[in-house]
Amino acid sequence: MLFAPQNGLRHYLKSHYADQTFQGLYHLNWFDLGFLIPYFAVMIVLAIYGVHRYTMCYQYYKYRKNYNPNPPKHFDELPRVTIQLPMYNEQFVIDRLIESVCAMEYPKDRLEIQVLDDSTDETQQVAVDIVERYAALGHPIVYIHRTNRHGYKAGALDEGLNVAKGEFVAIFDADFTPGKDWIMKVIHHFAEPEVGMVQTRWTHINRDYSMLTQIEAILLDAHFIIEQGSRSRAGEFFNFNGTAGMWRRQAIVDGGGWQHDTLTEDTDLSYRSQLAGWRFKYLPEVECPSELPIEMTAFKTQQARWAKGLIQTSIKLMPRIFQSNIPRTKKIESVYHLTANLSYPLMVIMTVMLMPAMIIRSYQGWFQMLLFDVPLFTASTLSIAVFYLASQQILYPGKWKRTLFYMPFLMALGIGLTVTNSKAVMEAIFGVKSAFVRTPKFRVTKKGEKSQANKYRKRLVLAPWIEMVIGAYFFLAILYTFTNNNFFTAPFLILFVVGYWYTGLMSLLQGRFERWRSGAPASDHDAESKPFPVGV
Q: How far from 422 is each of 77, 342, 379, 405, 418, CA to CA, in Å?
């Protein structure tokens, strides 16, 4: 039956890809070119960024021997270290953070801990009580509270630095829990006088909480293994990740200090400091556990802030980078790094033009379609799979194949983020300023745990509804492909439907999903604050 004359697979392939009955009847016209030229232009740019992902994977393995986890020198006398803990309305996680930091193994007379609190809620009193308790136990910890959020996180770090006593400054966000030996694993790398910053690798205490956290962990693993690993080993510029790293104070000063005119003050300072001549080191074997966002809205807020901040940094620093005397390879890699999020508005353009381009190209021969589609698909889409699978193979040599299950969902999630991230990128391009929106921390690490931080959820706005509409558009596109027996296109379009509907529905109904998972009824607080229609 498979090869029946009229309805089998052989008949389908022959009728759709070998039948030349109507060949020559269709002629390309200017109207069609008006759609196809910008469509392929966008696809080519996305393919260029895709080729760069292959390049980073290649560089990681090529320069693998360039990395030495052991510091070449050691301090004869341990230097003074200041640990800064910036926070804003983090009442449910600050005790865990301060407990971890106070347990660090480092001479107390060489250590200073600053709790930099910009909170406007109960976190203030919670933080004061915890600091007083640990100070009474002999820990060198101080509480610094600002009455305004001028400069947001960058402003808090700068104000703390003005009174800091340490020659070296470690920074941890509120959702991190560094290990006892973290400082001792890092500090001796600064015995090399040219080293200005040392970054360590994030791990995730709630990786297995949900499908979303699994995907988030894979996304971050690829950044910390392939991106940071490739750039650091190849001698390219790379960035401090805002937390779980240590700075030489002079490197901050030489770079121009903390500045708050971008939303990624960490990347901004990183590039300025490296342009000033300081060398950075990355230690992937030194881990620092952290908490992943468990809700779609929190994740989208984080991603949008990073996307906007990197474009702001590129606009601010690209002229200085090109005018500097650093090698051309570093300049090119800096462009890729700082402009990568331009792919999100490009994907929106591709989304709008995909259906018209598909209809126009259906009149062309299959050879002409494959001639363009296969190279572009290999460069843009397949590179994503290679990029993330490579990071998992490096981290989990015996278990990496399980990542294959998550790859379609990871790609779909990346597609679903295009609405909020494109908005963020366009705001950066047009100079629209916005506040530093923190990522809510829920202190949930295991399946079935219920968050106490419902009040930090955000209310619904327009983005999830736009995602739902775009998902419906691609669902109609799938129906169109079926009516034209173009079944090979449908799996690709399904990624768009799943991505947009997943991000949209999870944003609209996240609070309800949490209650269903835990089996808990809605609380009075939930009813008053309406936490479950949420979005970015």
A: 50, 8, 22, 27, 5
